[in-house]
Amino acid sequence: MLSFTKCGNSHKNLTILELLESLQIIKCDGFCRNYCILLKISKELSHKFFEVLGHVLYKDHQ
After folding, report:
1. Number of domains composing the chain
2. Is the pLDDT of residue 43 over 80?
3. Tens digit of pLDDT for each residue in 9-41?
4. What global pTM score does this model have?
5. How do the residues of the chain divide into helix, strand and coil, expressed in percent and rounded to 5?
6. Up-side HSE of residue 40: CA atoms within 13 Å toward CB?
7. Residue 8: its H or E element
């Protein structure tokens, strides 16, 4: 079974399998983007956490 899609001025026939594969790629890209964002946030938060912890421990030893 074929699905007719229009992208700009070009026309392309896609099979259902091709459509499903493209949806999986989109899902993966979204997941990877979200994962990268969460990774950046967690790195920033862990850096700040250990910075504060270092200050607290340093003050306790004085």
Report:
1. 1
2. yes
3. 444 566 777 777 777 777 777 778 888 888 888
4. 0.44
5. 75, 20, 10
6. 5
7. none
Residues 41 and 33: beta-carbon distance below 8 Å: no
What is the domain range of residue 20?
A: 2-60
Please answer whether residues 7 and 22 qualify as being in contact, where contact means their C-beta atoms are separated by less than 8 angstroms: no
For the CA atoms of 22, 7, 13, 24, what is the dihedral angle to 10 degrees?
Answer: 10
d(CA 4, CA 11): 8
Query: What pLDDT is attached to residue 13?
Result: 65
Please tell me whether residue 60 adopts helix, strand or coil conformation: helix
Token pair for 31: 């997941």
> Cα–Cα distance between 50 and 39 in angstroms, integer?
16
Structure-token pair, residue 18: 């091709």
